[in-house]
Amino acid sequence: MKIRALMLLLMIPPLAFAGRPSKNWSLYSSVETRSSLETFDQARNVLEMSLELMPAYKFQNNSKVRAYLAASKELQGSREQSLSNAFIGHTQKLFNMNSDTSVSSDIRGYIPLNEDSIKDESLKTRIYLGLSTNSNLAIPYIESSSLTLKISGYRNIHEFETSRSGSVNTQYSLSEYLGLNLQLTKDLSFSTYVTNSQYFSYYNNRKPDVFEAGQSISYAITQDIEMSLGHTLGGKTFKDDGVTNNIEFFNSKESTIYTSLSINF
To answer: Could you give all domains of the chain from N- to C-terminal order, each with its CATH number?
Structure first.
């Protein structure tokens, strides 16, 4: 019942912001449904819906304070529902390397709301720090394009070093992100990205690296409303020998497709 109530609350703030535009305040809201390709192959209608909410306040010096809250629910099958861990963060444009490239920082403090994070992992908080560069590219026949490179890391703070299930909790993580965005027309855009993450336990053991790759096509219905169709795939970066590359961009059993509708206020 608490999850259902919270999911309803996620839908209320956009209505509250409607009709009250502000120069500094903004609100990002998104509804997404996703399913694995294997689900369709097996003719099973198992879908997951998620709701996201991100209010933000922009300052004059190219910095922004924002908060993030999300909830998800399976629409079929076990109908499990859950919250994602929330965060409050600050982003800041630090400087311009040249006329086409800027450098920005991203700092976040997490609030555990996910039941597994709280009960199984005994997570108390997470401190996140990211540094990114964004470069405008000149590509023929493309209205505009940009390339983003981001390096980030976080430190978890747990009550206990091991989880209830007996596994050692992750203390540190480092990630690299590479993303490309193409504005094909005024209303149509394409984006793709790939990430790689390394995880380290409290006993200083390195866990298997994990990758994620995705692509999406988005259409702007209006200036503030956008719908997207996308694909994501993730898994271990290396095979069991720890050397052979295991990164894929499509897998009929592991790939996930999604549709989303986002609204900015």
So the answer is: 2-264 (2.40.160.40)
